[in-house]
Amino acid sequence: MPKGSIIHICSLHFLTSGSKPPRFPVVISGMKTIVLLFILGLSFGSYAQNVNQEKDTKKMEYNKLNEFERYVILEKGTERPFTGKYTDYKESGTYVCKQCGAALYKSTDKFDSHCGWPSFDDEIDGAVNRTVDADGRRTEITCANCGGHLGHVFFGEGFTDKNTRHCVNSVSLDFIPANEDTKKGKQ
What we know:
The protein has 187 residues and is α+β, with helices and mostly antiparallel strands.
């Protein structure tokens, strides 16, 4: 900020404090401006964060996760290959998100890729989001309902006619057998 510049700050403090604004503009210059803006920024940022957390807590009631499930689903970890419950699972039904219960994959789209994790060549429409990793080498897949980490999707490997492989952590999934009501999982 150039020396001698004057910034008029009218009632910014009062936006976050709940007090009535003064009937005159507050004039501040130089270093005082920077300090005040910094303090107001911290106050408003903290206020906004608390409001968002309250909204998130009210609208999101998810299944309780154990420590390892939190590591994989929330911290984007990976379970070791060939250790997951659903890697070689062959039953008919629907795979749902462990965290929120949203339906993600049909068992008819599951196939053996021998990669060490459950593999699917398709997802239920609108159930999975795809985001390119920061390094640009892989594409992360997450639950479209809750944002929980599922794994990664790969293309062009030739395992199926769809040429797509969703490589999913078993720990990110639950399974609802075909003979049970899939309304148990949110679709």
